[in-house]
Amino acid sequence: MNKEKNTRIAYFAGTMRPGHDGVTRVLYKLIEELNYQDISNIFFSPLIPTDDKQSTDMFKIPSIRFPLYKGYRIAMPGIRHFEQILNDFRPNLLHINSPFSLGYSAIKYAEKYKIPVVATYHTHFASYAKYYKIKTLGNMSWTYFKNLYNRCEKVYVPSKPILKELKNHGLKTIEYLPHGVDIKFFNPMYKSSIWKKSLGIEGKTVLLYSGRLVWEKDLKTLADTYNILSVYRDDFVFVLVGDGPIKNELQKLMPKAIFLGYQSGHALSTVYSSSDIFVFPSTTETFGNVTLEAMASGIPPVCARKGGASGIIIDGETGLLTKPGDALDLANKIEVLLDKPKLRNEIAKNALKYAQKQTWNKIFNKLFINYEQVITGYKNKLSNTNYSFLYKLYRY
Predict the structure, then answer these.
(1) Is the same domain home to 173 and 209?
(2) Which of 3, 88, 285, 376 could form a disulfide with 308 if both were Cys (CB 3.0 to 4.6 A apart)?
């Protein structure tokens, strides 16, 4: 990528609170690479860090509470909340990371000033309908997303199963671009011989879940699996990393499980690498960052055969796949790894080998090359329209 600051990219995200979810972890890795490449960048979000330790320019957009999940907020619609700031910044490209009102407003700005816009399909909101018992949410979501994303020059989709689903729903500008993993941070070298002892679970096989504690992660399936296994064996313990609105309910459903809450830094690296099996029943992931993190940490994953995580696992080789929403099948697959440590170790080695090739540097290089292609292609398209004079006036 050209290291001169003639590339200026504006990003729009649902939240920029560090550690809030998998999306923010991806975006903060992106910021590191943008700054390393010396690419000018600016971020807009309803939620930004409350301290002064921002790693780039971030601007808070007025918002209201998201009714389905109090930890998130929805930006007030309209470009007036960021128009002047963006005019001063003079972006070459807008990148949407949230499809709600902020993403729609970014589209409106891009169309007004004739600037190319791309998006990343981070969250599979249409699949949340059944968890919140809103029957019309699914169809309404697809109609809205199709209208929004088909107005983008490119929509980056991190997994092939989701890419296929989006294509079937009429999204036209989609392109496969997976996420990566920080192999220095998620690494078997952090395995601790005293970690289990510190939790009072020496001699137990640790079944790890990492992620937000919300029903749309199919955690009812996880709880049912816990109860199935607990009936006739006691050689394992479930450990859950993360926080969310259903934590208290899950603790009642999984009384002997260990809930560590939000973890970060060295503590998170240690939890991953010191666990034995990663269990992730979610069917709503667009990618499943946590699955790749587990693989990079040297532990084998057991995941649902639906959604993003299934796109990075070869069943029986780099992990095990289970029937979506089927607690008994999930329990059976976990038992295979509990009872066959040799197979568990072989899958862990294969998973680690795969994950070590999925570096963020490689992924972001592809993204930046695509940025250049989009910007150049959009300029060429404008040069053949009546907008060329307006574009040149605005950009230069």
Answers:
(1) no
(2) 285
